[in-house]
Specification:
Blueprint (H helix, E strand, L loop, with lengths): L5 H10 L1 E4 L5 H12 L2 H6 L1 E4 L5 E7 L6 H7 L1 H11 L3 E11 L7 E4 L1 H5 L9 E7 L10 E4 L10 E4 L2 E4 L1 H10 L2 E4 L6 E4 L5 E3 L8 E10 L23 H6 L13 H4 L13
Antiparallel strand pairs: 1-11, 2-3, 3-4, 4-13, 5-12, 6-11, 6-13, 7-10, 7-12, 8-9
Amino acid sequence: MSALSETQIKAYNEDGYFFARELFSAEEIQLLRETATNDHAMDQAASLRDDGTGASVRLTLWNHPGDGIYGMFARSHRVVDAVEQLLDDEAYHYHSKMILKDARVGGAWAWHQDYGYWYQNGLLFPNLCSVMIAVDTATEQNGCLQVLKGSHRMGRVNHILSGDQAGADLERVEHAKEAFPLVHCTMTAGDALFFHPNLLHASAANRSDDPRWALICCYNARSNNPYKESHHPSYTKLDKVDDEMIIRVGQNDAQRARVDFANLDSDDRSATSLSDDPNQ
């Protein structure tokens, strides 16, 4: 990916997101999908997040990108260089996660802002960026991401617990739905979505026969180093890699799944630190 266009930067600033269609090739995505679906350690590390209705979303998270194929995606110039344009700063890897929304059983994500709970980790500013990479084709039927276009301009809103998830104050969300267009972010495998940490987003449950897995790489600006320790890292120099490293590492069976997964059930306190009182 070359430098971001003025149109993409304007969309990020005004809408809170933009699509980078076909950012990754079919071969690159196939290697990522094969690695993830056959990764026993990823499956074992997956945690369940109750969506408040009794259904759950599975996800696996890791703080440092590592030297496997997951890290090659997160450290690739085509992603990190673009993020640094948006942050206007050096970016470091805040964490990555694989959202494992399986066919028929994948639960929903409540309406939320990422900064709504990252704020709890000692980050003074919402100068972060997330990049969602479609591992599978994402449709309305299999629970694609939904966003309220432009809602990041509201700033951070109060968040409360919704099941095991951090959910934005529903009263404010309902009014936001009247003020901002709802967009279903349908994506083809290999597409990427760059989005602002204050963008309100959610997703419906997957009631289809097709899985909807997605890799989300999250970045923080060096100047936004957290003032306290949390389960996500403080500034750590990110070593970018050439784009061709995705295929080179992905074809190396001994290397491609190399990463240290986090224990979300014991370490993650971003959501559980929230009160169930929206005024707290």
